[in-house]
Amino acid sequence: MTAGAPLQVRVRDIVELAPSLKRFSFEPAHGGLFPTPPAGGHVMLTLRDGARVMKNAYSLVSPPMERARYDIIVRLVAQSRGGSDFLHRKVAPGDVLEMARPVSLFPLASSAKKHLLIGGGIGITPLLSFLPEMKARGARFELHQLATGEEVPVFERLLAPYATGEEIRVHGGGRAAFDLAGLLSRQPLGTHVYVCGPHALMDAVTGTAAALGWPRGKIHKESFGGATGGLPFRAVLRRSGIEVEVGETQTLLEAIEAAGVAAPCLCRGGACGECVTPVIEGEVDHRDDFLSAEEKAGGKVVMTCVSRARGPRLVLDL
Amino acid sequence: MSDQGIKSRPRYHPIAPDPQGRHHLLVVDGPDVPVEALAEGVTPSAFEVWTVARKSAVPASPAMDEQAGAVRVFRAVPHLFSALEERLARETMGLRLYAAGTEPFLWDAYGIGARAGLSPQEMAFAHVGTQARRIFCVHCRTVMEGVTTSITTCAGCGAPLFVRDHFSRRLAAFMAVQIDAEVPGEVPQAEELYS
Protein backbone atom coordinates (compact mmCIF):
# COMPACT_ATOMS: atom_id res chain seq x y z
CA MET A 1 0.00 0.00 0.00
CA THR A 2 3.03 2.28 -0.10
CA ALA A 3 1.70 5.20 -2.11
CA GLY A 4 3.40 6.30 -5.29
CA ALA A 5 6.39 5.05 -7.19
CA PRO A 6 9.57 4.35 -5.22
CA LEU A 7 12.19 7.09 -5.03
CA GLN A 8 15.64 6.80 -6.56
CA VAL A 9 18.07 8.13 -3.97
CA ARG A 10 21.77 8.86 -4.15
CA VAL A 11 24.03 8.44 -1.13
CA ARG A 12 25.26 11.95 -0.40
CA ASP A 13 27.55 11.17 2.50
CA ILE A 14 28.17 8.60 5.18
CA VAL A 15 29.30 9.67 8.65
CA GLU A 16 30.61 7.25 11.23
CA LEU A 17 29.06 8.28 14.55
CA ALA A 18 30.44 5.37 16.57
CA PRO A 19 32.17 2.10 15.71
CA SER A 20 28.83 0.43 14.91
CA LEU A 21 26.72 3.47 14.01
CA LYS A 22 26.69 5.22 10.65
CA ARG A 23 24.53 8.04 9.41
CA PHE A 24 23.59 7.86 5.75
CA SER A 25 22.38 10.98 4.03
CA PHE A 26 20.44 10.60 0.77
CA GLU A 27 19.46 13.11 -1.91
CA PRO A 28 17.09 12.70 -4.85
CA ALA A 29 19.08 10.92 -7.59
CA HIS A 30 17.46 13.00 -10.31
CA GLY A 31 17.45 16.37 -8.56
CA GLY A 32 14.51 18.21 -7.03
CA LEU A 33 13.16 17.70 -3.57
CA PHE A 34 11.88 14.73 -1.61
CA PRO A 35 8.24 14.58 -0.46
CA THR A 36 7.65 16.06 3.00
CA PRO A 37 7.92 13.10 5.37
CA PRO A 38 5.67 12.62 8.41
CA ALA A 39 7.26 13.02 11.85
CA GLY A 40 8.20 9.59 13.14
CA GLY A 41 8.15 8.27 9.59
CA HIS A 42 10.24 5.52 8.12
CA VAL A 43 11.43 4.55 4.66
CA MET A 44 12.07 1.15 3.15
CA LEU A 45 15.34 0.67 1.30
CA THR A 46 15.76 -1.99 -1.34
CA LEU A 47 19.26 -3.40 -0.97
CA ARG A 48 20.63 -5.53 -3.80
CA ASP A 49 23.58 -7.60 -2.68
CA GLY A 50 24.37 -9.67 -5.75
CA ALA A 51 21.37 -11.92 -6.38
CA ARG A 52 20.00 -11.29 -2.92
CA VAL A 53 17.39 -8.56 -2.50
CA MET A 54 16.65 -7.21 0.96
CA LYS A 55 14.05 -4.63 1.92
CA ASN A 56 14.77 -2.96 5.22
CA ALA A 57 12.87 -0.23 7.04
CA TYR A 58 14.70 2.66 8.69
CA SER A 59 13.37 5.64 10.63
CA LEU A 60 14.12 9.03 9.15
CA VAL A 61 16.15 11.13 11.56
CA SER A 62 16.25 14.30 9.47
CA PRO A 63 13.71 17.00 10.39
CA PRO A 64 10.29 16.60 8.68
CA MET A 65 10.68 20.03 7.06
CA GLU A 66 13.97 19.01 5.42
CA ARG A 67 13.25 17.98 1.82
CA ALA A 68 16.70 18.26 0.24
CA ARG A 69 17.91 15.17 2.07
CA TYR A 70 16.72 12.18 4.05
CA ASP A 71 18.97 10.87 6.84
CA ILE A 72 18.92 7.47 8.51
CA ILE A 73 21.18 5.98 11.19
CA VAL A 74 22.09 2.33 10.87
CA ARG A 75 23.52 0.11 13.56
CA LEU A 76 25.84 -2.68 12.38
CA VAL A 77 24.35 -5.68 14.13
CA ALA A 78 26.65 -8.59 14.96
CA GLN A 79 24.13 -11.19 13.85
CA SER A 80 22.97 -9.05 10.94
CA ARG A 81 20.67 -10.75 8.49
CA GLY A 82 22.48 -8.81 5.84
CA GLY A 83 20.90 -5.36 5.64
CA SER A 84 22.99 -3.43 8.12
CA ASP A 85 26.11 -5.33 7.09
CA PHE A 86 25.50 -4.44 3.43
CA LEU A 87 24.93 -0.77 4.23
CA HIS A 88 27.97 -0.54 6.49
CA ARG A 89 30.43 -2.37 4.25
CA LYS A 90 29.28 -2.11 0.66
CA VAL A 91 27.38 1.14 0.18
CA ALA A 92 29.48 4.18 -0.75
CA PRO A 93 28.76 7.84 -1.47
CA GLY A 94 27.39 8.23 -5.00
CA ASP A 95 25.57 4.90 -5.00
CA VAL A 96 21.94 5.00 -6.08
CA LEU A 97 19.36 2.96 -4.15
CA GLU A 98 15.64 2.43 -4.38
CA MET A 99 13.60 3.78 -1.49
CA ALA A 100 9.87 3.50 -0.80
CA ARG A 101 8.25 6.81 0.05
CA PRO A 102 8.10 7.56 3.79
CA VAL A 103 5.12 6.48 5.85
CA SER A 104 4.48 6.77 9.57
CA LEU A 105 3.01 4.16 11.86
CA PHE A 106 4.29 6.05 14.89
CA PRO A 107 2.71 9.50 14.78
CA LEU A 108 2.73 12.08 17.57
CA ALA A 109 -0.67 12.26 19.27
CA SER A 110 -2.07 15.68 18.45
CA SER A 111 -4.24 15.79 21.57
CA ALA A 112 -1.39 15.07 23.99
CA LYS A 113 -0.69 17.57 26.77
CA LYS A 114 2.84 16.24 27.02
CA HIS A 115 5.00 13.74 25.14
CA LEU A 116 7.26 11.38 27.10
CA LEU A 117 9.82 9.74 24.80
CA ILE A 118 11.91 6.77 25.88
CA GLY A 119 14.58 5.35 23.59
CA GLY A 120 16.94 2.45 23.99
CA GLY A 121 20.11 2.29 21.87
CA ILE A 122 19.38 2.65 18.16
CA GLY A 123 15.71 3.10 19.14
CA ILE A 124 16.60 6.78 19.33
CA THR A 125 16.08 7.10 15.56
CA PRO A 126 12.30 7.65 15.33
CA LEU A 127 12.49 9.89 18.40
CA LEU A 128 15.02 12.11 16.64
CA SER A 129 12.49 12.99 13.97
CA PHE A 130 9.93 13.88 16.65
CA LEU A 131 12.15 16.50 18.25
CA PRO A 132 12.04 19.21 15.56
CA GLU A 133 8.31 18.60 15.17
CA MET A 134 7.66 19.02 18.90
CA LYS A 135 9.83 22.12 18.99
CA ALA A 136 7.89 23.57 16.05
CA ARG A 137 4.56 22.86 17.74
CA GLY A 138 5.80 24.28 21.03
CA ALA A 139 4.81 20.99 22.63
CA ARG A 140 5.79 20.01 26.14
CA PHE A 141 8.04 16.95 26.14
CA GLU A 142 10.61 14.93 28.03
CA LEU A 143 13.08 12.50 26.45
CA HIS A 144 15.07 9.76 28.14
CA GLN A 145 17.60 7.82 26.10
CA LEU A 146 19.20 4.67 27.47
CA ALA A 147 22.66 3.86 26.15
CA THR A 148 25.71 1.81 26.91
CA GLY A 149 28.39 3.84 28.68
CA GLU A 150 30.62 4.33 25.65
CA GLU A 151 27.74 5.48 23.45
CA VAL A 152 26.44 8.11 25.87
CA PRO A 153 28.52 10.89 24.23
CA VAL A 154 27.32 9.80 20.76
CA PHE A 155 23.67 10.15 21.71
CA GLU A 156 24.34 13.35 23.63
CA ARG A 157 25.84 14.86 20.47
CA LEU A 158 22.81 13.77 18.41
CA LEU A 159 20.42 15.30 20.92
CA ALA A 160 22.45 18.44 21.60
CA PRO A 161 20.70 20.60 18.95
CA TYR A 162 17.39 20.07 20.76
CA ALA A 163 18.45 20.26 24.39
CA THR A 164 17.37 23.48 26.02
CA GLY A 165 16.77 22.39 29.57
CA GLU A 166 16.12 19.42 31.76
CA GLU A 167 13.84 17.72 29.27
CA ILE A 168 16.46 15.60 27.47
CA ARG A 169 18.59 13.11 29.36
CA VAL A 170 20.90 10.27 28.29
CA HIS A 171 21.27 7.48 30.83
CA GLY A 172 24.39 5.34 30.69
CA GLY A 173 23.92 3.41 33.90
CA GLY A 174 21.88 0.55 32.50
CA ARG A 175 18.20 -0.13 32.87
CA ALA A 176 18.41 -1.14 36.55
CA ALA A 177 19.57 2.37 37.45
CA PHE A 178 16.78 3.99 35.41
CA ASP A 179 13.76 4.72 37.61
CA LEU A 180 11.08 3.87 35.06
CA ALA A 181 8.23 3.51 37.58
CA GLY A 182 9.09 6.84 39.16
CA LEU A 183 9.19 8.53 35.78
CA LEU A 184 5.87 7.07 34.63
CA SER A 185 4.08 7.74 37.93
CA ARG A 186 4.80 11.47 37.99
CA GLN A 187 3.54 12.35 34.51
CA PRO A 188 0.66 14.82 34.29
CA LEU A 189 -2.75 13.86 32.92
CA GLY A 190 -2.83 13.85 29.15
CA THR A 191 0.72 12.54 28.72
CA HIS A 192 1.44 10.10 25.89
CA VAL A 193 4.46 7.82 26.16
CA TYR A 194 6.43 6.63 23.10
CA VAL A 195 9.05 3.92 23.36
CA CYS A 196 11.43 2.51 20.81
CA GLY A 197 14.24 0.12 21.56
CA PRO A 198 14.92 -3.49 22.48
CA HIS A 199 11.89 -5.67 23.18
CA ALA A 200 12.79 -5.92 26.88
CA LEU A 201 12.68 -2.13 27.21
CA MET A 202 9.43 -1.81 25.27
CA ASP A 203 7.82 -4.54 27.39
CA ALA A 204 9.04 -2.85 30.59
CA VAL A 205 7.62 0.53 29.54
CA THR A 206 4.28 -0.78 28.32
CA GLY A 207 3.91 -3.13 31.31
CA THR A 208 4.88 -0.54 33.93
CA ALA A 209 2.71 2.16 32.36
CA ALA A 210 -0.31 -0.16 32.23
CA ALA A 211 0.23 -1.19 35.86
CA LEU A 212 0.27 2.48 36.85
CA GLY A 213 -3.07 3.07 35.17
CA TRP A 214 -2.02 4.48 31.80
CA PRO A 215 -4.73 3.72 29.24
CA ARG A 216 -3.66 1.69 26.24
CA GLY A 217 -4.36 4.57 23.84
CA LYS A 218 -1.62 6.68 25.43
CA ILE A 219 1.13 4.07 25.17
CA HIS A 220 2.89 3.91 21.80
CA LYS A 221 5.72 1.65 20.77
CA GLU A 222 7.73 1.37 17.62
CA SER A 223 9.31 -1.97 16.96
CA PHE A 224 11.83 -2.52 14.25
CA GLY A 225 14.38 -5.18 13.55
CA GLY A 226 12.23 -7.86 15.12
CA ALA A 227 13.27 -10.35 12.45
CA THR A 228 16.16 -12.36 13.80
CA GLY A 229 16.15 -15.41 11.57
CA GLY A 230 15.84 -19.02 12.69
CA LEU A 231 15.72 -22.55 11.39
CA PRO A 232 15.10 -22.92 7.68
CA PHE A 233 11.70 -24.19 6.53
CA ARG A 234 9.60 -24.63 3.42
CA ALA A 235 6.64 -22.36 2.69
CA VAL A 236 3.92 -23.56 0.33
CA LEU A 237 2.02 -20.75 -1.37
CA ARG A 238 -1.20 -22.57 -2.19
CA ARG A 239 -2.84 -19.97 -4.42
CA SER A 240 0.33 -19.12 -6.31
CA GLY A 241 1.07 -22.82 -6.68
CA ILE A 242 4.71 -22.53 -5.67
CA GLU A 243 6.97 -23.57 -2.82
CA VAL A 244 9.82 -21.50 -1.42
CA GLU A 245 12.69 -22.35 0.89
CA VAL A 246 13.12 -19.87 3.71
CA GLY A 247 16.76 -19.66 4.72
CA GLU A 248 18.20 -19.17 8.18
CA THR A 249 18.91 -15.48 7.78
CA GLN A 250 15.98 -14.79 5.50
CA THR A 251 12.46 -13.79 6.51
CA LEU A 252 9.38 -15.54 5.18
CA LEU A 253 8.42 -12.30 3.43
CA GLU A 254 11.83 -12.01 1.77
CA ALA A 255 11.62 -15.58 0.52
CA ILE A 256 8.15 -14.94 -0.90
CA GLU A 257 9.38 -11.78 -2.61
CA ALA A 258 12.44 -13.59 -3.98
CA ALA A 259 10.05 -16.05 -5.62
CA GLY A 260 8.42 -13.16 -7.43
CA VAL A 261 5.16 -13.09 -5.48
CA ALA A 262 3.95 -9.60 -4.61
CA ALA A 263 3.06 -10.03 -0.94
CA PRO A 264 1.58 -7.16 1.08
CA CYS A 265 3.93 -5.41 3.51
CA LEU A 266 4.49 -2.01 5.03
CA CYS A 267 6.60 -1.78 8.19
CA ARG A 268 8.55 -5.04 7.86
CA GLY A 269 8.96 -5.01 11.61
CA GLY A 270 5.93 -6.87 12.97
CA ALA A 271 4.08 -3.72 13.92
CA CYS A 272 1.54 -2.66 11.33
CA GLY A 273 -0.40 -5.79 10.36
CA GLU A 274 -0.29 -5.14 6.63
CA CYS A 275 1.37 -8.48 5.79
CA VAL A 276 -1.01 -10.68 7.77
CA THR A 277 -1.59 -13.85 5.70
CA PRO A 278 -3.96 -16.80 6.26
CA VAL A 279 -2.34 -20.08 7.29
CA ILE A 280 -3.81 -23.31 5.91
CA GLU A 281 -1.47 -25.78 7.54
CA GLY A 282 1.53 -25.81 9.85
CA GLU A 283 2.45 -24.27 13.18
CA VAL A 284 3.54 -20.63 13.44
CA ASP A 285 6.30 -19.14 15.59
CA HIS A 286 4.68 -15.73 16.14
CA ARG A 287 7.18 -12.88 16.63
CA ASP A 288 5.07 -9.81 15.91
CA ASP A 289 3.57 -7.09 18.09
CA PHE A 290 0.37 -6.82 16.08
CA LEU A 291 -1.71 -9.96 16.55
CA SER A 292 -3.59 -10.45 19.82
CA ALA A 293 -2.75 -13.37 22.10
CA GLU A 294 -5.97 -15.06 20.93
CA GLU A 295 -5.07 -14.65 17.26
CA LYS A 296 -1.60 -16.05 17.92
CA ALA A 297 -3.01 -19.02 19.79
CA GLY A 298 -5.56 -19.55 17.02
CA GLY A 299 -2.76 -20.12 14.51
CA LYS A 300 -4.88 -19.14 11.52
CA VAL A 301 -2.74 -16.20 10.41
CA VAL A 302 0.91 -15.26 10.19
CA MET A 303 2.75 -11.99 9.82
CA THR A 304 5.26 -12.87 7.15
CA CYS A 305 7.69 -10.03 7.88
CA VAL A 306 8.91 -11.36 11.23
CA SER A 307 7.21 -14.67 12.05
CA ARG A 308 8.38 -18.11 10.96
CA ALA A 309 7.31 -21.72 10.92
CA ARG A 310 7.68 -23.81 14.04
CA GLY A 311 8.49 -26.92 12.10
CA PRO A 312 9.57 -27.87 8.59
CA ARG A 313 6.56 -26.61 6.61
CA LEU A 314 3.97 -23.86 6.47
CA VAL A 315 1.10 -23.74 3.94
CA LEU A 316 -0.20 -20.25 3.20
CA ASP A 317 -3.29 -18.99 1.40
CA LEU A 318 -1.23 -16.73 -0.83
CA MET B 1 -39.99 10.77 18.29
CA SER B 2 -37.93 10.14 21.42
CA ASP B 3 -35.64 7.69 19.61
CA GLN B 4 -34.57 9.47 16.45
CA GLY B 5 -31.97 6.79 15.66
CA ILE B 6 -29.15 9.27 16.00
CA LYS B 7 -25.78 7.75 16.84
CA SER B 8 -24.43 10.77 18.72
CA ARG B 9 -27.06 10.24 21.43
CA PRO B 10 -24.87 9.19 24.39
CA ARG B 11 -25.50 5.88 26.10
CA TYR B 12 -24.79 5.41 29.78
CA HIS B 13 -23.95 2.48 32.01
CA PRO B 14 -23.82 2.01 35.76
CA ILE B 15 -20.34 2.87 37.03
CA ALA B 16 -17.72 0.38 38.19
CA PRO B 17 -14.13 1.35 38.95
CA ASP B 18 -11.85 0.62 35.98
CA PRO B 19 -9.49 -2.13 37.22
CA GLN B 20 -6.73 -0.54 35.10
CA GLY B 21 -7.01 2.77 36.99
CA ARG B 22 -4.79 3.78 39.91
CA HIS B 23 -7.13 6.31 41.53
CA HIS B 24 -10.86 6.80 41.08
CA LEU B 25 -12.61 10.16 41.50
CA LEU B 26 -16.42 10.21 41.37
CA VAL B 27 -18.24 13.53 41.13
CA VAL B 28 -21.96 13.55 41.88
CA ASP B 29 -24.63 16.11 41.02
CA GLY B 30 -26.31 15.82 44.46
CA PRO B 31 -25.72 15.20 48.16
CA ASP B 32 -25.35 11.41 47.91
CA VAL B 33 -24.15 8.78 45.48
CA PRO B 34 -27.34 7.44 43.87
CA VAL B 35 -27.53 3.66 44.23
CA GLU B 36 -28.65 3.24 40.61
CA ALA B 37 -25.50 5.05 39.39
CA LEU B 38 -23.25 2.20 40.51
CA ALA B 39 -22.92 -1.25 38.99
CA GLU B 40 -24.06 -4.21 41.02
CA GLY B 41 -21.75 -4.96 43.94
CA VAL B 42 -19.90 -1.62 43.68
CA THR B 43 -19.92 0.64 46.76
CA PRO B 44 -19.06 4.37 46.96
CA SER B 45 -16.04 3.48 49.14
CA ALA B 46 -14.21 2.36 45.97
CA PHE B 47 -14.01 6.04 44.96
CA GLU B 48 -12.94 9.37 46.27
CA VAL B 49 -16.37 11.04 46.16
CA TRP B 50 -17.22 14.67 45.58
CA THR B 51 -20.84 15.69 46.17
CA VAL B 52 -22.94 18.84 45.87
CA ALA B 53 -25.07 19.78 48.92
CA ARG B 54 -26.78 22.80 47.31
CA LYS B 55 -26.64 24.66 50.63
CA SER B 56 -24.21 27.04 52.26
CA ALA B 57 -23.56 24.97 55.37
CA VAL B 58 -21.24 22.20 54.27
CA PRO B 59 -18.91 20.25 56.52
CA ALA B 60 -15.26 21.21 56.32
CA SER B 61 -13.26 18.42 54.77
CA PRO B 62 -9.50 18.11 54.72
CA ALA B 63 -8.69 19.29 51.22
CA MET B 64 -5.76 16.93 50.89
CA ASP B 65 -7.67 13.78 51.81
CA GLU B 66 -7.41 12.36 48.33
CA GLN B 67 -8.04 8.66 48.56
CA ALA B 68 -10.74 6.08 48.06
CA GLY B 69 -13.40 6.41 50.75
CA ALA B 70 -12.86 10.16 51.27
CA VAL B 71 -15.92 12.37 50.72
CA ARG B 72 -15.77 16.07 49.96
CA VAL B 73 -18.92 18.18 49.94
CA PHE B 74 -19.35 21.31 47.82
CA ARG B 75 -21.90 24.11 48.09
CA ALA B 76 -22.92 24.07 44.45
CA VAL B 77 -21.98 22.63 41.07
CA PRO B 78 -19.75 25.56 39.98
CA HIS B 79 -17.92 25.23 43.30
CA LEU B 80 -17.23 21.55 42.55
CA PHE B 81 -16.22 22.19 38.94
CA SER B 82 -13.79 24.92 39.89
CA ALA B 83 -12.10 22.57 42.39
CA LEU B 84 -12.11 19.81 39.76
CA GLU B 85 -10.20 21.98 37.29
CA GLU B 86 -7.56 22.74 39.89
CA ARG B 87 -7.34 19.14 40.96
CA LEU B 88 -6.96 17.69 37.45
CA ALA B 89 -4.26 20.25 36.63
CA ARG B 90 -2.00 18.69 39.25
CA GLU B 91 -3.08 15.05 38.84
CA THR B 92 -0.86 12.37 37.36
CA MET B 93 -1.49 9.58 34.86
CA GLY B 94 -3.57 6.73 36.22
CA LEU B 95 -6.55 8.76 37.44
CA ARG B 96 -10.05 7.82 36.31
CA LEU B 97 -12.89 10.33 36.44
CA TYR B 98 -16.51 9.26 36.90
CA ALA B 99 -19.63 11.40 37.06
CA ALA B 100 -23.22 10.67 38.08
CA GLY B 101 -26.06 13.08 37.56
CA THR B 102 -28.03 14.94 34.92
CA GLU B 103 -26.75 15.07 31.37
CA PRO B 104 -25.56 18.71 31.45
CA PHE B 105 -23.59 17.92 34.62
CA LEU B 106 -22.03 14.79 33.08
CA TRP B 107 -20.93 16.54 29.93
CA ASP B 108 -19.64 19.61 31.70
CA ALA B 109 -17.51 17.23 33.78
CA TYR B 110 -16.44 15.51 30.54
CA GLY B 111 -15.36 18.87 29.09
CA ILE B 112 -13.27 19.69 32.16
CA GLY B 113 -11.70 16.22 32.04
CA ALA B 114 -10.99 16.45 28.31
CA ARG B 115 -9.38 19.89 28.66
CA ALA B 116 -7.17 18.43 31.41
CA GLY B 117 -6.03 15.68 29.02
CA LEU B 118 -8.28 12.77 29.94
CA SER B 119 -9.36 10.61 27.01
CA PRO B 120 -12.86 9.11 26.79
CA GLN B 121 -11.31 5.80 27.90
CA GLU B 122 -10.37 7.40 31.23
CA MET B 123 -13.86 8.65 32.07
CA ALA B 124 -17.24 6.99 32.69
CA PHE B 125 -20.70 8.42 33.26
CA ALA B 126 -24.02 7.36 34.73
CA HIS B 127 -27.12 9.37 33.94
CA VAL B 128 -29.47 9.71 36.90
CA GLY B 129 -32.26 12.16 37.51
CA THR B 130 -34.17 14.31 35.07
CA GLN B 131 -34.22 13.75 31.31
CA ALA B 132 -34.56 17.50 30.79
CA ARG B 133 -32.22 18.73 28.11
CA ARG B 134 -29.74 21.51 27.66
CA ILE B 135 -30.23 22.65 24.08
CA PHE B 136 -28.21 24.78 21.69
CA CYS B 137 -29.96 26.89 19.06
CA VAL B 138 -27.89 26.24 15.94
CA HIS B 139 -29.10 29.54 14.44
CA CYS B 140 -28.28 32.05 17.20
CA ARG B 141 -26.03 29.98 19.55
CA THR B 142 -28.27 30.49 22.55
CA VAL B 143 -28.08 27.75 25.18
CA MET B 144 -31.23 26.89 27.12
CA GLU B 145 -31.42 24.66 30.17
CA GLY B 146 -34.12 22.28 31.36
CA VAL B 147 -36.04 21.79 28.12
CA THR B 148 -38.61 18.99 28.46
CA THR B 149 -40.61 19.32 25.26
CA SER B 150 -40.08 18.16 21.68
CA ILE B 151 -40.53 21.73 20.43
CA THR B 152 -39.74 24.96 22.23
CA THR B 153 -39.23 28.64 21.53
CA CYS B 154 -35.65 29.93 21.44
CA ALA B 155 -34.98 32.36 24.27
CA GLY B 156 -32.42 34.10 22.08
CA CYS B 157 -34.02 34.57 18.66
CA GLY B 158 -37.61 33.51 19.19
CA ALA B 159 -37.49 30.77 16.57
CA PRO B 160 -39.68 27.71 17.13
CA LEU B 161 -37.11 24.95 17.65
CA PHE B 162 -37.25 21.21 17.21
CA VAL B 163 -35.11 19.48 19.88
CA ARG B 164 -33.03 16.84 18.13
CA ASP B 165 -31.32 13.75 19.61
CA HIS B 166 -28.18 15.03 17.94
CA PHE B 167 -25.85 15.62 20.89
CA SER B 168 -22.65 17.65 20.92
CA ARG B 169 -20.13 16.45 23.48
CA ARG B 170 -18.12 19.60 22.92
CA LEU B 171 -21.04 21.89 23.71
CA ALA B 172 -22.60 19.42 26.19
CA ALA B 173 -25.97 20.15 24.58
CA PHE B 174 -28.58 18.81 22.18
CA MET B 175 -28.89 20.60 18.88
CA ALA B 176 -32.11 22.48 18.24
CA VAL B 177 -33.16 23.63 14.77
CA GLN B 178 -35.94 25.88 13.47
CA ILE B 179 -38.93 23.67 12.73
CA ASP B 180 -40.87 26.03 10.43
CA ALA B 181 -38.00 26.98 8.16
CA GLU B 182 -39.69 25.46 5.09
CA VAL B 183 -43.23 26.67 5.80
CA PRO B 184 -43.14 29.67 8.16
CA GLY B 185 -45.76 29.44 10.87
CA GLU B 186 -46.32 25.70 10.49
CA VAL B 187 -45.39 24.50 13.99
CA PRO B 188 -46.66 21.14 15.27
CA GLN B 189 -47.93 20.71 18.79
CA ALA B 190 -45.11 20.39 21.34
CA GLU B 191 -44.99 17.08 23.20
CA GLU B 192 -43.72 16.64 26.74
CA LEU B 193 -40.95 14.06 26.19
CA TYR B 194 -38.01 14.82 28.44
CA SER B 195 -38.99 15.11 32.07
TrEMBL record, chain A:
Keyword rRNA processing: no
Top-level lineage group: Bacteria
CDD domains according to UniProt: fer2 (cd00207), PDR_like (cd06185)
Gene Ontology molecular-function annotations: 2 iron, 2 sulfur cluster binding; metal ion binding; oxidoreductase activity
Domain named FAD-binding FR-type: residues: 4-109
Domain 2Fe-2S ferredoxin-type, chain residue ranges per copy: 233-318
InterPro entries for this protein: 2Fe-2S_ferredoxin-like_sf, 2Fe-2S_ferredoxin-type, Benzoxazolinone_Detox_Enz, Beta-grasp_dom_sf, DmmA-like_N, FAD-bd_FR_type, FNR_nucleotide-bd, Riboflavin_synthase-like_b-brl
Keywords tagged on the record: 2Fe-2S, Flavoprotein, Iron, Iron-sulfur, Metal-binding, Oxidoreductase
PANTHER family: PROTEIN YIIM
Name of the featured protein: Oxidoreductase
UniProtKB/TrEMBL annotation, chain B:
Region (Disordered): 1-21
Membrane-crossing residue ranges in chain numbering: none
Residue span(s) of domain Dimethylamine monooxygenase subunit DmmA-like N-terminal: 5-122
Domain Dimethylamine monooxygenase subunit DmmA-like C-terminal: 134-177
Coiled-coil blocks: none
An MF annotation (GO) of this entry: 2 iron, 2 sulfur cluster binding
Record InterPro entries: DmmA-like_C, DmmA-like_N
Pfam families: DmmA-like_C, DmmA-like_N
Cell division in keyword set: no
Keyword terms of this UniProt record: 2Fe-2S, Flavoprotein, Iron, Iron-sulfur, Metal-binding, Oxidoreductase
Protein name: Uncharacterized protein
Source species of the chain: Xanthobacter autotrophicus
Upper lineage: Bacteria, Pseudomonadati, Pseudomonadota, Alphaproteobacteria, Hyphomicrobiales
